[in-house]
Every structure is written in structure tokens, then in C-alpha cells.
Amino acid sequence: MQKKSLELFSLLFLSFLFINCQDQPEKKQENKKEKVSLQMVFKDDFYIGAAVNDGHIDGTDTLGIKLLKEQFNTITPENVMKWMYIHPQRDTFYFDTADKYVALGNDNNMHVVGHALVWHSQLAEWMNQVKDSTEMATILKEHISTIVKQYKGKIDTWDVVNEALNEDGTLRESNFYNVMGDSYLELAFKEAAKADPDAQLVYNDYNLWKPEKRAGVVRLVKKLQESGAKIDGVGMQAHWSLLGPSIEDIENSIIAYSELGVKVMFTELDVTALPNPWDLNGAAVEQSYEQYEGDPTMNPYPNGMPDSVQIKLAERYEDIFKLFLKHKDKISRVTFWGVQDGQSWLNSWPINGRTNHPLLFDRQYLPKKAYQAVIDLKEKN
Ligand code: XIL
User: Fold this and answer.
1) Which residue of the set 7, 34, 226, 268 is catalytic?
2) Which residues contact 270 (CB under 8 A, 6 or more apart)?
């Protein structure tokens, strides 16, 4: 009897050892896989994030949420905090969806961005009817203080003003400008700082690599600073393509903005791989090219990009992130405009109904060559 149980014990012990030995390499690999993510590799450099949409906020896009939590440590709301949604009527604020967005970020210890307090686009129509400067100032103050206070201590960074400049660096003739002149800028930044003194306050725009527009940003930021307003960062949207802008132009802007004593953020990064055979750069959402809708030459990769183009995208992202790392002391955040390709706004802008591939994850939520290239920059160096 005793001998038998000894034999049984030895057998069990040996199988235990065997199973454990077999298990270990796999476990190690799993652990390694868990560790490698964008947020892990860039943790000492800058925040790395993505814009989130309704599916992330209401919880239906479970794969998207999983990827978001694994890969990113900052989020920006793609639409839900824009004026037309959050302040649809003069006396109505709608916070439900924005509250859920903020909770998503706070619950997952993410750096939460608010986008955007003052912007001429996706503005509630009633606000475009306001033509009296005193009335507009009152509304702007109410708008900013109500929203910023709602999320005091919960939103870390605000895009206070979005896209106030023309391509030549002059001020855009939005309704805000037409009614209040440039005083609306100072008012907006001062009101935001009053409502939450700890929040980081940002001026955000596209094409900020352009020398003329760069000069406009420098003027704008200096004027704000001279007025005593607090401004902490310049957000370069970074809606770019395989062909441009040049790394040199981007670099010159990083340096120029950081010399103002503010941080640089890349707030809406994506790299289009589709043809744009017109004089289009930037991201003016009102531009549209309906005449090209359905034209197959404008939509060359409806079933996925060939390897040769995936490689080009990977190389472009590698160059971009090399530059970011070179200037990591000046850059506080890099945010992609979306989690995966299928959700990118570039599938419908500027031509509706195209299949674009501008991000690091494909429609199956899988990492692309571009993802690996960006990770390798840190992992292999
Ligand atoms: C875009 C959204 O991604 C789209 O879903 C929406 O239809 C239009 O706006 N610059 C900005 C962003 O600051 O808010 C814009 O987002 C893209 C350009």
C-alpha cells in the first residue's frame, strides 16, 4: 500500500514538473506580449493617445475599448464635447455623454483631454446668430465656465480655442472674430483658467508646420501671454499624408512653439495613404469633394493596402516618431485621431465613402507594420 502511494506521489510530482517546464516559456512570452504597447514604450517620453467615439463611450465597441486600455494613456473626445452637442441651445447643456467619456478616462487613469471649447465648426447654429459683442462675451463666459467647472479636476487638458487662424497666419473671420475681434481669444483662455486653474490650456490648429501659419501662432501666443492669459500648449493637429509635410517643417514648428515657453502636443495624428490630386492640405472640415465620390481611382485600396504601401506608411510613421523622440523634452502628448482604420474620419473626409488606412491598427483591431515600426524605434534602440 505504502509503496503504491509513493509511486503515485512520484508520478504526480513528475507530471507536475513536466507540465510546469512546458508552461514556462509560454508564460514568459505572454508576459512579454502584455508589456509591449505604445503606452509602455513611450512612458518616459510623452503621453500617447487616441480620439474616442460613441462606441467606446457607450461600451459597445468592446475590442476598441480593450485596445484603448492596452495601448493608450490619454484620450480625446472625437465629437461629443463639441459646442453643437454639449451646448445645443442657449439655456441647455447636455452633459450625459461627455460625463461618460470623462468617466472612461478617469476610471482607467488616463490623461483626459477636452475638445474643443471655442471653434467655428460644429458650432450650435444659434451661436452663429449672435451679433452683439457684449452678448457674445457673456455667452462665451457662460459656455466656458459651465463646461470647465463641470469637469474641474477630471479633465487634465483643454483645447480652449480650435482653428482660429487662416493659412497665411491672419485671424480667421469666424463669427467670434467678426463680432468680438481678437478679444475673444483672451477672454476664452482667461475664463478657462479661472474655471480650473490646474487644467492645461491649449491652442489647437491644423497645418501648423506651415511657416506663415507658424508665424501667426507665435503672434497669437505672444499676445495672449502679454495679456496675462495662461496658455500651456500648442496643439498641432497633424492630419498628414505619406508625402508631406516635411520633417524639417514640422521640426521648425516644434522649436518655434517651444521657444514661447509652452509645450507642443500632436493632437490628431493620422497619415492618409489615399490620393488627393488637388491643392489640399490641412483639415478644414467644411471642404468636400463630392464630384470624386465613387471614383475608383480615388479609392485604390478598398480591400486593404498592398504590402508596398504598408511599408511606406511604416517608414513615414518611423520618421515622424524619430522626430518626436528627438524633441521629447518639448512634446507632452501624441494623440492619434481614432483607434483603428475603420473608425477614422478620413473614410468620409474629404471624399465620402472611401476606405482609408491612416492609423496603426487595421479594421480587425490588429497592429499594422506601422505599429511595429513605431514600437521598434524604442524596443530595438
Ligand atoms: C472631425 C471628426 O473626426 C468627425 O467625426 C466630424 O464629422 C468632423 O470633425 N479637426 C478637429 C477635429 O479639430 O475635431 C475634427 O474631427 C477633424 C479636424
Assistant:
1) 268
2) 238, 239, 240, 336, 337, 338, 344, 346, 358, 359
